[in-house]
Specification:
Layout (H helix, E strand, L loop, with lengths): L1 H14 L12 H14 L2 E2 L5 E2 L3 E6 L1 H7 L3 H18 L9 E6 L8 E6 L10 E5 L4 E3 L4 E4 L6 E2 L10 E6 L2 E6 L6 E3 L2 E3 L1 E3 L5 E4 L2 E7 L1
Parallel strand pairs: 3-4, 8-9
Antiparallel strand pairs: 1-2, 3-5, 6-7, 6-16, 8-10, 10-11, 11-14, 12-13, 12-15, 15-16
């Protein structure tokens, strides 16, 4: 059941907005299945008898495949992470810290081939104090959650007509700060890439509709 749920999540990506990118060659399903193989193949028994698995996965791709995925790398990586979390939860595995996936270019790999390597990473403390700084210089402390939109009463109320009433939300989770678009009309961008959900790091550029801002940790 866990593997099927994993595959359904990735199938929606293949058949959705970015179908053009995945219409030929290596697909997210193949990458996902290899990650599952690494998850299941690296189990170890904890002191209390629970099954523990690595929480970081390096995905090595040929230069051609890496270039083809470049325009959707953020969403693809996020989907692989969420699908991996789903599988880990379904199998009741334990992890030491947040699950993460990194795509790596391997110039010596033939197109269509890949390798996945698992790594154990201990969880790290995340900075919990953050701000959104608008291009005007206005600074807004980020609470948890922090809502953005034109709707009165939100954490950050914007008058930009390109911003939806309920546009986006920033939240602090186990893996750190993330921003999630709430189905807005004109979208949310992180460092120039249109996102549905994306982790946030210090100094990231975030655009809500046509309103530019910077995410700062302190």
């Amino acid at each position: 059941m866990g593997l099927r749920r994993f595959e359904r999540r990735l199938e929606s990506l293949v058949e959705g907005t970015f179908a053009r990118v995945f219409k030929s060659g290596l697909s997210p399903l193949e990458i996902g299945r290899r990650i599952v193989r690494e998850i299941d193949g690296n189990q170890t028994v904890a002191v209390d008898g629970a099954l523990a698995v690595p929480n970081h996965y390096w995905v090595y791709l040929s230069s051609a495949d890496h270039a083809r995925f470049a325009e959707v790398e953020t969403q693809l990586t996020n989907e692989l992470i969420e699908a991996s979390r789903t599988h880990i939860a379904d199998e009741q595995y334990r992890v030491l810290g947040p699950v993460s996936v990194t795509l790596v270019e391997a110039p010596d790999y033939p197109e269509g081939t890949l390798q996945v390597q698992a790594q154990w990473r201990e969880g790290v403390a995340h900075q919990t104090s953050a701000s959104i700084v608008l291009s005007t210089g206005e600074r807004f402390p980020v609470g948890n959650p922090f809502t953005i939109g034109r709707l009165p009463g939100g954490s950050l109320v914007l008058t930009d007509e390109n911003v939806s009433r309920n546009h986006a939300v920033i939240e602090l989770g186990a893996a750190g700060w993330v921003v999630r678009d709430l189905g807005s009309t004109n979208g949310t961008k992180v460092n120039g890439a249109l996102i549905q959900e994306s982790p946030l790091q210090n100094g990231d550029s975030v655009v809500f509709g046509a309103t530019e801002a910077t995410f700062e940790l302190h």
